[in-house]
Amino acid sequence: MKKILITGGAGFIGSFLCERLLAEGNEVICLDNFFTGRKTNINHLRDNPRFDLIRHDVVEPILLEVDQIYNMACPASPVHYQHNPVKTVKTNVMGALNMLGLAKRVGARILQASTSEVYGDPQVHPQTEGYVGHVNPIGPRSCYDEGKRVAETLMMDYHRQNGVDIKIIRIFNTYGPRMLADDGRVVSNFIVAALKNEPLTVYSDGSQTRAFCYVDDLVEGIVRMMNSENFIGPVNLGRPGEMTVMDLARMVLELTGSKSKITHLPARQDDPLQRDPDISLAKEKLGWQPTTPVRDGIGRTIAFFEKLLSESR
Ligand code: NAD
Ligand code: UDP
Fold first, then answer.
1. Contact 278/240 with Cβ under 8 angstroms?
2. Is 144 a catalytic residue?
3. Percent of the chain beyond pLDDT 90?
4. What is the residue extent of each domain of the chain?
């Protein structure tokens, strides 16, 4: 049994991680400022004596006795991380500094949730970990992309300078239950619009691609990475097999049986045109690859939003 801190533990991915690590018999401290996290994501865990919840912002230091730290705190949707871009930079940079300081002080292992966004609008396809990226440092996505790049830098420097035990994962687009209905990310936007018989809004012509990984598969990869030996990463975690945004829209319409129309809006600035992970390294080092077909995962996510929308009526 380990004492494990999960920052951003009340968020979409973090809440599944809390569940998983509790089920394995660990003590879990969920730390969150509830910017995009919700108590409803973790309420079912609060009776467990091995679960603790702390309302705290990672831009401020904190001292806790823990063995492992999963640093997941940061809004992931462009709508949310662009709402207060200066705060997004602080969360990524100060958050990583504070958690690394804690890891150094108490001798904990720390895993940083980085992102495929460190590759920017990639000129290498699919993306391998060796690709150093093509990020605009001054655009509306920079607060997130560059924030995560600095977080990776800090991780590597604390490792080299202070011997901190680190792990870096680069998460590609992940979806599933507990995404927010007003999250702004493409999967939740399309499903919610389809269920309400409202138009699905595709930015640009919808030929841009993403590869979508179901959250259960991702969590398995994250936990394997944390518990791996002699491997610090960075490692890509995602589901290979890009699809266009238009294809996703059509799939959602088919699986919901919705009559919604597809409408188009102008392209978002700096929107990456192609994204698809090369996960050879994760397969080799972690023996990990996703197993959930996209149609199955989207089906389960539709069921979640159907229930959510029917309860809010
Ligand atoms: P999310 O927005 O659902 O969760 C983020 C959580 O962090 C929320 O609970 C939020 O309240 C909390 N948080 C934000 N700022 C904080 C702060 N300053 N202090 C404390 N808590 C704070 O997003 P998610 O999809 O669960 O993403 C989790 C992590 O994974 C993020 O670091 C994100 O960058 C990374 N990631 C996610 C994806 C994806 O597709 N979901 C892709 C790449 C990377
Ligand atoms: N997108 C879209 N309609 C939406 C939301 C997103 O066409 O309602 C597109 C967006 O322009 C991008 C892709 O879907 O090309 C994925 O967007 P998301 O915000 O989910 O993630 P990210 O851009 O960070 O990969």
1. yes
2. yes
3. 99
4. 3-243+249-312
Closest by Cα among 215, 274, 287, 203 to 241:
274
Residue owning the nearest CA to atom 4 of ligand 2: 186
Phi, psi (5° rounding) for residue 31? -115, 130
Which ligand has an atom closest to residue 54 CA? Answer: 1
Closest Cα partner for 218 from 242, 191, 231, 236? 236
- The two tokens of residue 263 are 């409408």
CB 169, CB 112: distance < 8 Å: yes
Does ligand 2 come within 6 angstroms of the Cβ of 174? no
303-307-311 Cα angle (round to 5):
170
Residue 133's nearest CA partner among 243, 227, 272 is 272
Q: What are phi and psi of 127, to 5 degrees?
A: -85, 130
Amino acid making up residue 12: F
CATH number of 3-243+249-312: 3.40.50.720
Look at residue 312 in the predicted model and tell me its pLDDT: 83
Average pLDDT, the chain: 97
Residue 95 has pLDDT above 80, yes or no: yes
Residue with tokens 């800090």: 154
Question: 128 C-alpha vs ligand 2 centroid, how far in Å?
Answer: 22
